[in-house]
């Protein structure tokens, strides 16, 4: 009987240990390892964004990106990455058009997603307007249309994420569709515990039929805010962040483009997220300083592709 009890206890302890494995450990790392995805948002937004992002992927520490399929330059990406079969590229689910003079509309037919079309015939400028006007069914239809459009130009998405966070900060049903589609296409969705606790737990019925118990969750997302940009500047902010990086998985978001005539025209009227901001991002993430900080702080770069293998 003692042997049987010991065996049962061993099975229980082994099972508990397995369940407590962190995502880092599932990837083959330890709990104390500092793991980082250096992720460039907004590829596809402009030619300048495309060529700068690809340059940073090839020559800097950027190792992941995601595409804005409704934008005019998204189809160019399919051609530019033909020599990059291992590229970690996701779908930057885009429900808004924040720019003053640069306009784009949903990929799905406007007649099928009228709630995503503002008075000017293009997407709304902010997430609040999307949440007020777009039904969950319309948003899911547009998300699917963006994924399918990427597949048609040869992109095999490694993950989903959200432009301006509208999926996370809109209606809870948007998040449900986001998770459902990620699971349907067999790729991870960028999520962390804060998002899940704040949206799923108060709304369990909305997520019925979705496997929320086995979601892949990263530890944290980091991004430069306008205040930090003004107070510190990009190099100081990123240097401090990498020096103080915590163990676990961090996704560091940035926006890379050249400060050229095209980007200045697109971002006209903006005091942040503009052409100079994006050039500053490019300058840092392709610098020797950035590479040295990764090495000095013993940071290990990982990708969504690696995380995707764990979720399968």
Number of strands: 7
Measured by DSSP, the beta-strand proportion falls in 5-15%
CATH class: Alpha Beta
Characterize the quaternary organization of these chains: single chain
Q: What's the CATH H-level superfamily name?
A: Glycoside hydrolase/deacetylase
Uncertain spans: 1-18
Compact summary:
By secondary structure, the protein is an alpha/beta fold. The protein has helices at residues 2-19, 23-26, 47-59, 74-80, 127-133, 136-152, 166-169, 172-185, 193-199, 226-231, 234-243, 261-266, 275-285, 288-296, 304-311; strands at 34-43, 64-67, 89-93, 160-162, 220-222, 248-255, 299-301.
Structure description:
Helix 3 (47-59) packs parallel to helix 4 (74-80), helix 6 (136-152) packs parallel to helix 8 (172-185) and helix 11 (234-243) packs parallel to helix 14. Residues 1-18 have low confidence and may be disordered. The chain is 45% helix and 12% strand. It has helices at 2-19, 23-26, 47-59, 74-80, 127-133, 136-152, 166-169, 172-185, 193-199, 226-231, 234-243, 261-266, 275-285, 288-296, 304-311, and strands spanning 34-43, 64-67, 89-93, 160-162, 220-222, 248-255, 299-301. Strands 1, 2, 3, 4, 5, 6 and 7 form a 7-stranded parallel sheet that branches. It contains 15 helices and 7 strands. It has 312 residues and is of the alpha/beta class. The chain has one domain: TIM Barrel (Alpha-Beta Barrel), CATH 3.20.20.370. Strand 2, helix 4 and strand 3 (89-93) form a beta-alpha-beta unit.
């Amino acid at each position: 009987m003692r042997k049987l009890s010991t065996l049962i206890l061993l099975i229980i302890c082994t099972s508990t240990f397995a369940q407590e494995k962190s995502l880092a450990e599932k990837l083959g790392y330890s709990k104390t390892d500092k793991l980082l995805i250096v992720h460039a948002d907004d590829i596809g937004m402009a030619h300048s964004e495309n060529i700068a992002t690809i340059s940073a992927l090839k020559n800097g520490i950027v190792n992941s990106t995601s595409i804005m399929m409704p934008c005019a330059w998204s189809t160019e990406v399919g051609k530019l990455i033909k020599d990059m079969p291992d590229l970690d590229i996701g779908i930057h689910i885009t429900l808004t058009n924040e720019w003053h003079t640069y306009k784009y509309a949903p990929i799905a037919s406007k007649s099928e997603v009228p709630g995503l079309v503002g008075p000017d015939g293009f997407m709304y400028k902010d997430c609040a307007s999307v949440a007020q006007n777009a039904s969950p069914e319309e948003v899911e239809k547009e998300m699917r249309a963006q994924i399918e459009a990427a597949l048609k130009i040869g992109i095999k998405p490694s993950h989903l994420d959200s432009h301006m966070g509208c999926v996370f900060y809109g209606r809870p049903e948007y998040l449900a569709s986001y998770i459902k589609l990620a699971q349907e296409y067999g790729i991870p969705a960028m999520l962390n515990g804060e998002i899940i606790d704040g949206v799923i737990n108060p709304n369990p019925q909305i997520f019925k039929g979705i496997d929320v118990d086995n979601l892949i969750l990263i530890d944290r997302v980091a991004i430069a805010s306008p205040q930090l940009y003004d107070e510190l500047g990009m190099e100081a902010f990123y240097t401090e962040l990498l020096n103080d990086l915590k163990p676990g998985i961090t996704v560091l978001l940035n926006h890379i483009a050249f400060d050229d005539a095209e980007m200045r025209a697109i971002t006209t009227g903006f005091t942040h997220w503009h052409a100079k901001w994006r050039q500053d991002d490019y300058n840092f993430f392709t610098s020797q300083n950035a590479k040295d900080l990764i090495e000095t702080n013993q940071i290990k770069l990982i990708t969504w592709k690696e995380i995707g293998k764990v979720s399968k």
